[in-house]
């Protein structure tokens, strides 16, 4: 099939490359000339494992190209909308400027039978509004909502082998003509057994909001348990292991630590609350305010623990923060808890050095006043305390015996509960985890 992907960020660039991998002919469109130039040279404008190789591989087949010109959409059968929906400045709601601009820009290039497929995370009701626009301009085109569930760091595998596919069509019916078109787009994952659900459009939009809200709630639940464990002298990691063995609960997403960040969960739960308010259903989601509050408290708690670890004062203490990205295997620092903690430590007088294998350039753009050091062994030199805040494998693998010779004081705060506490203590370190005695 001929496919357009509008928006070439974390979602769209991966989607475009994966659609080409599935055998389609794809054009990715973005307003950012630099991004388009990089992608045209098979270089991802952000870090995602294996994306550069995939871009190279599919570009060699001639099936993937990029453009800044929306006219490149003309002639495609399917047009995916993959632009961002950030949080509005000073408000909880989602900013739909980019989704609206992408849809409006596409309208002149639509032909009868075309399918416009929204993948961006939007407030429920957006799809029906956009469908109205599409219908007025091209009555024989369709607008479908097909939410995306990929995780950064696993984006390619999640796109090629998703857990499920959800198609939100106007009448919620299997017989809707767009269903067969999407089935052809996703023929390969469907053939390998990926379940697919056909729903109406509002349900499809809500599936995404509900999924991210559930994940955020699960993380905040275990972080709330961490607070109780800290007060009671219990260990939240063992508690999570034990409750996770009940397969109705499950161990995934029960990692207590410094909480969730990134470009999705924090803004999505806020946008969901805002939208529910507009719909008169705000009471249904007031618990998400608590989920958000628990999450934000973790950041303050880590700063308090770091102060405790440094004998009551951060003033002049050399603190090394291991990790700046919001999660490992990503260079994304949007709402990164690690960076927000690093900035708070600096405000409280600590001399902070931040290191990360991939995210330092993005971090420096967002927090230019922090000190950054790319080399881990240089970053830890003479540190009074180490704070592991993003669990990159290379930080999990650090050898406490070797490190002991570089730092000033043997103090470590494990913000993700991933280090072997017994081993670090045996090597002479004062070890603090979150929600652990
Ligand atoms: C999230 C969802 O997991 C995806 O399904 C969804 O498609 C995506 O948002 C999106 O809306 O686009 P992502 O933001 O890439 O994906 O990251 P997650 O893996 O969900 O992690 C989010 C945050 O939660 C990270 O800061 C991570 O460190 C934290 N986390 C995760 C925990 O603190 N504890 C856990 O147990 C799991």
Question: Would you mind describing this structure in some detail?
Answer:
It is a single chain. This protein is α/β, with parallel strands linked by helices and 437 residues long. It has 2 domains: 2-194, 3-Layer(aba) Sandwich (Rossmann fold), CATH 3.40.50; 199-437, NAD(P)-binding Rossmann-like Domain (Rossmann fold, 3-Layer(aba) Sandwich). The chain is built from 18 helices and 14 strands. It has helices spanning 12-21, 33-40, 51-60, 97-106, 126-137, 155-160, 177-185, 187-191, 201-232, 236-244, 265-278, 286-309, 337-347, 360-366, 376-379, 393-396, 400-403, 421-426, and strands spanning 2-6, 25-29, 64-67, 78-81, 115-118, 142-145, 165-169, 196-200, 318-322, 351-355, 371-372, 385-388, 411-414, 430-433. The protein has a 6-stranded parallel sheet, with helices on both faces. The protein has a 6-stranded parallel sheet with strand order 11-10-9-12-13-14. Helix 9 crosses helix 11. The relative contact order is 0.09. Uridine-5'-diphosphate-glucuronic acid is lined by residues 121, 148-152, 212, 215, 219, 253-255, 257, 259-262, 264-265, 268, 326-327.
């Amino acid at each position: 099939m001929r496919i357009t992907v509008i928006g070439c960020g974390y979602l769209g660039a991966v989607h475009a490359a994966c659609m080409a991998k599935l055998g389609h002919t794809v054009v990715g469109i973005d307003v950012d000339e630099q991004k388009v130039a990089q992608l045209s040279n098979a270089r991802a404008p952000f870090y995602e494992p294996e994306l550069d190789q995939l871009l190279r591989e599919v570009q060699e087949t001639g099936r993937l190209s990029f453009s800044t010109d929306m006219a490149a959409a003309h002639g495609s059968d399917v047009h995916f909308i993959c632009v961002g929906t950030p949080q509005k400045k000073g408000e909880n709601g989602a900013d739909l400027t980019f989704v609206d601009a992408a849809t409006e820009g596409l309208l002149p290039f639509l032909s009868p039978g075309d399918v416009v497929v929204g993948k961006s995370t939007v407030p429920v009701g957006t799809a029906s509004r956009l469908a109205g626009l599409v219908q007025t301009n091209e009555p024989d085109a369709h607008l479908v909502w097909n939410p995306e569930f990929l995780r950064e760091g696993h984006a390619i595998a999640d796109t090629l082998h998703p857990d499920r596919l959800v198609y939100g069509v106007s009448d919620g019916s299997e017989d809707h003509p767009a269903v067969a078109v999407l089935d052809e787009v996703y023929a390969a994952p469907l053939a390998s057994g990926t379940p697919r659900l056909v729903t109406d459009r509002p349900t499809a939009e809500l599936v995404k909001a509900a999924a991210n809200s559930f994940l955020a709630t699960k993380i905040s639940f275990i972080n709330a348990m961490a607070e109780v464990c800290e007060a009671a002298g219990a260990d939240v990691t063992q508690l999570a292991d034990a409750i996770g063995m009940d397969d109705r609960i499950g161990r995934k997403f029960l990692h207590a630590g410094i909480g969730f960040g990134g470009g999705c969960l924090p803004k999505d739960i806020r946008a969901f609350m805002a939208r529910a308010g507009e719909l008169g259903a705000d009471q249904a989601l007031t618990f998400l305010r608590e989920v958000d509050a628990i999450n934000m408290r973790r950041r303050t708690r880590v700063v308090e623990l770091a102060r405790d670890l440094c004998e009551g004062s951060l003033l002049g203490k050399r603190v090394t923060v291991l990790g700046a990205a919001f999660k490992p295997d990503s260079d994304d620092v949007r709402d990164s808890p690690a960076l927000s903690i690093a900035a708070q430590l600096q405000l409280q007088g600590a001399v902070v050095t931040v290191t990360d294998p991939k995210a330092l350039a993005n971090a420096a753009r967002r927090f230019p006043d922090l000190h950054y050091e790319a080399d881990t062994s240089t970053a830890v030199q003479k540190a009074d305390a180490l704070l592991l805040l993003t669990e990159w494998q290379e930080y999990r693998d650090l050898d406490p015996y070797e490190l002991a010779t570089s730092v000033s004081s043997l103090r470590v705060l494990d913000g993700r509960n991933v280090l072997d506490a017994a081993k670090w203590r045996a090597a002479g370190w004062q070890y603090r985890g979150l929600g652990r005695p």
